[in-house]
């Protein structure tokens, strides 16, 4: 049956609001709540033997992969290479035995990602794929399919597929960590408890919809917007910038906070909104000091953080968006919501075609 918009104005809006449900649906096949365990569905793969993970994807799926790189290295201590598929497929990458190649794709039909997969297969890698369309070419080609259960995604700008990918990748990282002896049973049970709270946490994030709508006029007139984040929030900054440029046609860049002084700070003046993703935690002070460098040059800051972070650093910001606190393997899933909503409301304010932005295709099946 055709997918309906229901009471929503756009598919993208509907898909943003579906996230608590579809992420929960996805997690159901990865989490065994009563045993306090995370298990990948139908897989008898000995992850303990994996000595390197290579992640390849395009677009939003690539940014999900970048978050996973931080997670896999931090929690499982397995080295991760990551590349966009269009680069990977032509650079003759070195792939040694014992490697697992992980492809991430909503459609499972992206031409460059499929070509990269074929290369990794020739290189005798174990091929795993995080896919939303179970009948896709990529799902057929992979040794192991790690499905997302986001349901059909109609809006060209990916939203719910991204958070479902992150949920699967969090489960994958935790599973690998467990197989590698880097995550204790207690830590696993604790993570499972946190994963069960994800839908509720996403609902809390979505409760800020109206606040964020009221900020759209702060961003809509801008020519350039900068997104800053550190660690696992750096890919989120890039995803935020991608969402904004895709649907509002405003030039936006996502940058690693600490790298800003090597170039983009030259762009800052009082016409450049700067979106800072800074949950409290070990990297908070570092990101805030980068934020202050922006403020000192007149940059107008929208700070996305939790209550503690906003209490510490919210003063002087043009606006703040308060997110619930979350486990590191959940926090990027939650912070995806405000950047999606901000892009959405800015695009609505500008009157662009949110679901069918110019020049873009839902799935890029030619090179
Ligand atoms: C296109 C879409 C993006 C998507 C990318 C990768 O550019 O517009 O939203 O992230 O392709 O697509 P995939 O289906 O491989 O995730």
Fold and architecture overview:
One of its GO terms (molecular function) is glutamine-fructose-6-phosphate transaminase (isomerizing) activity. It is found in: Cytoplasm. It catalyses: D-fructose 6-phosphate + L-glutamine = D-glucosamine 6-phosphate + L-glutamate. It is an enzyme of class 2 (transferase). The structure is a single chain. The protein is α/β, with parallel strands linked by helices. The protein has helices spanning 11-17, 19-28, 59-76, 85-88, 111-122, 137-141, 160-179, 185-196, 198-206, 209-213, 216-219, 233-248, 284-296, 307-313, 331-350, and strands at residues 31-32, 37-38, 52-57, 80-84, 99-105, 126-131, 144-147, 224-229, 251-256, 273-277, 300-305, 319-322. A five-stranded parallel sheet has the order 4-3-5-6-7, with helices on both faces. Helix 2 packs parallel to helix 7 (160-179). The protein starts with 10 loop residues before the first helix and ends in a 17-residue tail after the last helix. It binds 6-O-phosphono-alpha-D-glucopyranose. 6-O-phosphono-alpha-D-glucopyranose (G6P) binds next to helix 3.
Question: Summarize this, please?
Answer:
The protein is of the alpha/beta class. It has helices at about 10-15, 20-30, 60-75, 85-90, 110-120, 135-140, 160-180, 185-195, 200-205, 210-215, 215-220, 235-250, 285-295, 305-315, 330-350, and strands at about 30, 35-40, 50-55, 80-85, 100-105, 125-130, 145, 225-230, 250-255, 275, 300-305, 320. Bound molecules: 6-O-phosphono-alpha-D-glucopyranose.
């Amino acid at each position: 049956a055709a997918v309906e918009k229901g009471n929503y104005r756009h598919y993208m809006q509907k898909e943003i609001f579906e996230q608590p449900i579809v992420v929960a649906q996805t997690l159901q096949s990865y989490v065994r709540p009563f045993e306090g365990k995370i298990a990948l569905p139908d897989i008898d793969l000995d992850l303990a033997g994996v000595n390197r993970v290579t992640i390849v994807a395009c677009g939003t799926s690539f940014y999900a992969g970048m978050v996973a790189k931080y997670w896999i290295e931090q929690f499982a201590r397995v080295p991760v290479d990551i590349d966009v598929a269009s680069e990977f497929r032509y650079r003759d990458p070195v792939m040694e035995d014992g490697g697992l190649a992980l492809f991430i794709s909503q459609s499972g039909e992206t031409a460059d990602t499929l070509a990269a997969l074929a290369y990794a297969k020739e290189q005798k890698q174990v091929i795993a794929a995080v896919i939303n369309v179970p009948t896709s070419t990529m799902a057929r080609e992979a040794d192991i399919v790690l499905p997302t259960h986001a349901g059909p995604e109609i809006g060209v700008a990916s939203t719910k597929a991204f958070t479902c990918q992150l949920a699967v990748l969090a489960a994958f990282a935790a599973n690998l960590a467990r197989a590698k002896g880097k995550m204790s049973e207690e830590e696993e049970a604790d993570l499972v408890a946190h994963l069960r709270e994800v839908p509720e946490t996403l609902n809390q994030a979505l409760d800020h919809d109206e606040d964020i709508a009221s900020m759209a006029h702060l961003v809509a007139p801008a020519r350039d917007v900068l997104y800053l984040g550190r660690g696992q929030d750096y890919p989120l900054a890039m995803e935020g910038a991608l969402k904004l440029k895709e649907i509002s046609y405003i030039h936006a860049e996502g940058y690693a906070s600490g790298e800003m002084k090597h170039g983009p700070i030259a762009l800052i003046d009082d016409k450049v909104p700067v979106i800072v993703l800074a949950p409290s935690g070990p990297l908070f002070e570092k990101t805030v000091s980068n934020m202050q460098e922006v403020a000192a040059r007149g940059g107008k800051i929208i700070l996305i953080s939790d209550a503690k972070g906003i209490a510490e650093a919210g003063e002087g910001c043009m606006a703040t968006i308060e997110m619930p606190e979350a486990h590191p393997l959940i926090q990027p899933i939650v912070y995806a919501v405000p950047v999606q909503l901000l892009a959405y409301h800015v695009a609505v304010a500008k009157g662009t075609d949110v679901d069918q932005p110019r020049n873009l295709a839902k799935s890029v099946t030619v090179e």
